[in-house]
Write a structure and sequence with these properties.
The chain is of the alpha/beta class. The protein is built from 10 helices and 10 strands. Helix 3 (102-112) packs parallel to helix 6 (152-165), helix 4 packs across helix 6 (152-165) and helix 6 (152-165) packs parallel to helix 7. Bound molecules: adenosine-5'-diphosphate.
Length: 259
């Protein structure tokens, strides 16, 4: 079940360095949110706080709240491993397990979560996930081949299949197309659009056309200068951000005057 995300007064630190400050944001279920802004303004850092991956680095921490359907992910009794099971992530470079077969790549997340499944159920899950990632037709006859035998675009769809196989509520994507050619990029964008029927999706992208094409809402992050924390400057319907933003800095950024 896709979840509603609510972020309140979120500050994000790497040791004593405050990388992101004061984020307040609401994200509706079954929607696609794009995060844009110049390099270094904290988009990826922010994204990683939505599944508690930020804190895996020594000294990295947050203050404030990130809630999913009202439950604060940072409450002391919440297990970060469970959070990551509900909030899947797809990275910039496709990172299939290279020696593992296509089949095992998709099944990997489920196996890691210690869910013992009968072979027939696992087969079905692998097929459904590959279909959900628009990859099934291309790989159904070679499920035993290594993940690394696929093209970059196919590998990224394989990683999406792996992420959706564990049936998360939320899917985070950190520049998922930045290593891909334009055709594979369009295939992933079509796929993202289909996935919003099942998940809440948050995507970081440096590609403004992509944000405009795929997202319902867009958040613009910015930074005043080196060493200063990044901030969410404004967030609105994507159409509005790209036609008539409220803040001058957003307009300057989307019209290419900086960044
Ligand atoms: P963006 O995704 O918008 O390009 P990042 O989230 O990657 O920005 O970076 C935001 C800030 O946090 C930058 O100043 C960056 O140098 C810093 N930062 C990112 N990752 C780390 C890290 N692992 N350790 C320390 N500082 C980091």
């Amino acid at each position: 079940m896709a979840k509603r995300i609510e972020v309140a007064d979120l500050d994000i630190y790497y040791g004593s360095f405050k990388a992101v400050e004061g984020v307040n944001m609401a994200i509706e279920p079954y929607s696609i949110t794009a995060l844009i802004g110049p390099s270094g303004c904290g988009k990826s850092t922010f994204l990683r706080t939505l599944n508690r991956m930020h804190e895996v680095l020594p000294g990295a921490r947050v203050s404030g709240k990130v809630a999913m359907d009202g439950q604060n992910l940072y409450d002391p009794d919440i297990d970060p491993v469970t959070v990551r099971r509900h909030v899947g992530m797809v990275f910039q470079r496709p990172n299939p397990f290279p020696t593992m077969s296509i089949y095992d790549n998709v099944a990997a997340g489920v196996k890691l979560n210690n869910r013992r499944m009968r072979k027939a159920s696992l087969d079905e899950l692998v097929e459904t996930s590959l279909r959900g990632a628009n990859l099934w037709e291309e790989v159904k006859d070679r499920l035993g081949r290594p993940g690394s035998s696929l093209s970059g675009g196919q590998q990224q769809r394989l990683c999406i299949a792996r992420a959706i196989a564990i049936k998360p509520d939320v899917l985070l994507m950190d520049e998922p197309c930045s290593a891909l050619d334009p055709i594979s990029t369009l295939a992933i964008e079509d796929l993202i659009n289909e996935l919003k029927e099942k998940f809440t999706i948050v995507i970081v992208t440096h590609n403004m056309q992509q944000a405009a094409r795929v997202s319902d809402r867009t958040g613009f992050f910015n930074i005043e200068g080196t060493g200063k924390p990044g901030k969410l400057i404004e967030m609105d319907a994507t159409q509005r951000i790209f036609s008539n933003p409220s803040v001058k800095a957003t307009e300057d950024y989307i019209t290419g005057r900086f960044g």
